[in-house]
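User: Structure please.
Assistant: Input sequence and predicted structure:
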Amino acid sequence: MKNKNLKFTLEESDIDNFLNSHLYEVNSLIYILIFWGIMALIGLFLYLSGTGVNYTILISIIAGLFVIGAIYALSIYYKRVNKKAIMANSDFFLEQEIIITNEGLVTSNPNGKYTYTWDRLTEVINTKGNFIIKMTGNQMIIVPKRLFSEQGEKDFEQALNHFIAGSIIVGLATE
């Protein structure tokens, strides 16, 4: 990797990319909703054709459809609430610097400098617009892909995965 120091400021589009990543995806709910919709139509067809499907089954299928629809609506609302909370946090939008060292990931912004040792980092998630570096607990670091060339993206992810995997192997060897 050519440049191990990254300076950037998160933008609203980076937050949108994060919220639309698979960490917050609700696409599976869409498939469930479609499935229940098809079941409701089949149940309605069978009921209207008089093939012995009783009214209770039809009501339960339609009720299931409405419950899944309500869950989907709540997930969309939850995503919007999260975006508002993130956008209101001005610390998210301070200029940041990330440095990859042999000891760990060093991040700094005008509020301070933090070192995350490799054993605290658990995973690098490659999404459409960001790298999301997950840590133990609920912490994560968002690194926008707009900072990298195509090869730079591969090098950055490979370097992080190399160090994270190395710390896991060392941790297992010492247990």
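The first helix runs from residue 12 to 19.
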